[in-house]
Structures are given as C-alpha cells and as structure tokens.
Amino acid sequence: MTGDNPIPDQLVVLAADDDEDILELVAFRLERSGYSVLRARDGQQALDLALEEQPDLALLDVMMPKLDGIEVTRRLRAETATSRMPIILLTARAQDGDIERGFEAGATDYIRKPFSPRELRMRVQSVLARH
After folding, report:
1. Helix (H, G, I), strand (E, B), or coil: what is residue 112?
2. Are 54 and 80 in contact (CB under 8 A)?
3. pLDDT value, residue 15
4. pTM here?
C-alpha cells in the first residue's frame, strides 16, 4: 500500500483513486517530480492512511467506494492532525454543483479528468507552495 520509506525532506502525497490505471499514472507522475507517494484504492483506505501517515498533500478522486472523496475531505478537516492538510479533488464530475460541494467540504483545489501530467504537477506544486 505505501511505497518505500520517504527520503528525508521529500514531500509525501497521498493519491487515492479506485481506478488502478489512473492511480498508477498519478503516482508515476508525482514520483517523477520528486514526491513520495502513498496509494489508496478507496476512500476508507485514503482516510486511514492520511490519519496514520499525515502526508503533505492528499489528492483524492471524488467517486470512490466506501467513502467518496468529498466525505474523506470532510473527515480530514474535522481531525486536528489533518485539518490544514492541502486536499486536491480529482474527478470527472465537473459540474458547478460538484465543484461547489468539494470546496464547501474543504478542498483546496480541484482537477478535472482528463488532466495532463503537466497540469497535475503544476497544481500540486502550486498548492504545496502556498501551504
């Protein structure tokens, strides 16, 4: 589930998506950009990993089994240890109402699928630079 131990001073990103291909693509791109990546395949696993490992940023798919990304975001915001963690929601659900629900839950940013690897890297870097 988790990768190797992160290199000291290496930022850790939690990537959560139930689509194995997207999860591996996201992890590959982030690792190539110098991040250590924790992988979760459903919302409950993402929540558990985030609370246990306290990554520098969480990148959560909105539509996942067990808990969706919006509910994971709400629960992370409710916990003292993760309340300030930057959270980017990743989703194909790009209607204004969906985006609004994500921000109301506490998301820091939103990336629409399909996305380019460059956009992913730039958004992650931008969000981390602000926090």
Report:
1. strand
2. no
3. 98
4. 0.91
Element (H, E) at 38: strand 36-40
Cβ neighbour number for residue 121 with a 10 Å cutoff: 16
Burial of 61 (0-12, 13-18, 19+ CB in 10 A): buried
Q: Which residues of the chain have pLDDT under 50?
A: 1-3, 6
Question: Please, what is the angle between helix 96-105 and helix 69-78, to 10°?
Answer: 20
CA 98 vs CA 4, 92, 106, 120: distances in Å: 34, 10, 13, 19
Residue 107, Cα to own-chain centre: how many angstroms? 10
**Backbone φ and ψ of 117, nearest 5°:** -55, -35
